[in-house]
Amino acid sequence: MTTNIILETTMGSLTLELYTNHAPKTCNNFTTLVRRGYY
């Protein structure tokens, strides 16, 4: 399973594809930081 995140920057948009099956803890940590507004 994958999760896609669009990261908006001043230089344009980046689409990130997170591989939740391969790295569930890392993906969860990244998603949590995104929701908290860190990115």
Q: What's the rounded overall pLDDT mean?
A: 94
Q: Give the N-to-C terminal Cα separation.
A: 23 Å
Q: What portion of residues is helical?
A: 25-40%
Q: Any idea how many domains?
A: 1
User: What spatial order of strands do you see in the largest sheet?
Assistant: 1-2
Major sheet summary line: 2 strands, antiparallel
Give the number of DSSP strands. 2
| β-strand amount | 35-45%
Unreliable segments of 5+ consecutive residues = none
Q: From the alpha-carbon coordinates, what is the Rg to the nearest angstrom?
A: 11 Å
**Helix-strand pattern:** EEH
Alpha-beta classification: alpha+beta
Condensed summary:
The protein has 39 residues and is of the alpha+beta class. It is built from 1 helix and 2 strands.
Keywords for this structure?
single chain; 39 residues; alpha+beta; two-stranded antiparallel sheet; 1 helix; 2 strands; flat
Structure overview:
This protein is α+β, with helices and mostly antiparallel strands and 39 residues long. It has one domain (2-35). It is 31% helix and 41% strand. It has one helix and two strands; from the N terminus they run ββα. The protein is flat, with a radius of gyration of 11 Å. The protein starts with a strand and ends with a helix. The model has no long low-confidence stretch (mean pLDDT 94).
